[in-house]
Amino acid sequence: MFVPISDNNPLRHLPFQYVTVALIVVNVFVYVVFVSGLFADALETTAYTFGLIPAVFNDYRELPAQYAVVPESFTLLTYQFVHGGFLHLASNMLFLWVFGDNVEDAMGHWRFLTFYLLCGVAAALVHDFAQPQSVAPLVGASGAVSGVIAAYLMLHPNVKVWVLVLWRVPLRLKAAWVLGFWVVLQVFSVLTAAENESVAWWAHIGGLAAGAVLVVFMRRRGVPLFDRGLVTAVPPSRS
């Protein structure tokens, strides 16, 4: 498995990726305060209150009164900021940190925020369509981050990314290989997932599809797709 560490891809339009960092801060804050157990043991309450529950969203079930804090439609957004554990949070935030800055750079701050949230909403709707009577809360930023991954792959497939192979071996590969492998893994997982699978693979697919479509329309004018016009270093000629 490839674990991304960093990419050699400087910002071209923005001085700093404020929205990417803000999203990470908000996700970490929600985890520490509501999920981690440091202040209160509230994982189940938080998941059922702010997670998207397809059976409730589709009116097959009613949410108990103690969990019905926000309108069910709002959970299309709130579920994106709740994570079920530290590794769940860390993996999503790592991918967002490595790849979000350049997608934000290609769109601008506010457009990127809209893009991120829309990818998360699309991911939830696809998950809801695939499992309309599920009573398990959908939580996590994976759907939105999947959209970021798709956008990065559309924008910068030829950029080199440092990854850890099998969590140990550092390697520098093109983003097309790293993220392409990740996309294939999601499709394979959807096709082979067990009935009671705890990972919402369809949400990942929904986020990927939304990101691939939205980046075409939401990138800045003049920002190319697929690294068109990318200038790479050419070794000097030897006489």
UniProtKB/TrEMBL annotation:
GO-annotated molecular function: serine-type endopeptidase activity
Peptidase S54 rhomboid domain sequence ranges: 74-220
Gene Ontology process terms (BP): proteolysis
Topology in membrane: Multi-pass membrane protein
Transmembrane segments: 21-40, 81-100, 112-130, 136-155, 175-194, 200-218
Cellular location(s): Membrane
Entry GO CC: membrane
SUPFAM superfamilies: Rhomboid-like
Keywords: Hydrolase, Membrane, Protease, Transmembrane, Transmembrane helix
Statement: the UniProt record of this protein carries the keyword Secreted: no
InterPro entries hit by this protein: Peptidase_S54_rhomboid_dom, Rhomboid-like_sf, Rhomboid_protease_S54
Superkingdom to which the source organism belongs: Bacteria
Family the UniProt entry places it in: Belongs to the peptidase S54 family.
Name of this protein: Rhomboid family intramembrane serine protease
Organism from which the protein derives: Microbaculum marinisediminis
